[in-house]
Amino acid sequence: MGDHIVSLEHLNDCKPQELSNTIYAYAKVQEPHPNLFNKVADHIVLLNSLDDYNEQDISNLAWAYHKAGIIRQDLDDKLISVATDRKFSAERLETLNRWAS
Prior knowledge:
Number of strands: 0
Oligomer: single chain
Structural class: mainly alpha
């Protein structure tokens, strides 16, 4: 599945939950797929807004990149910015900051 996603020309047709769950699943089973993680991160960073991404999607993404050991400061900055703007709970913000550090 990861190779298929990487082969797509763009990810505009993928739903936020689909992307976050896929990345989460790869991290959860500790299956490295750097090309997949980078493709999804590039897509998210280039989006004008993350309005379609809910709190759980954003948390799943932050956790998955942390768990996989893939550091993407541009992605971390965007996820934390969205969480702050949306006024996520203090506990959730603290957790996101820890994962993104």
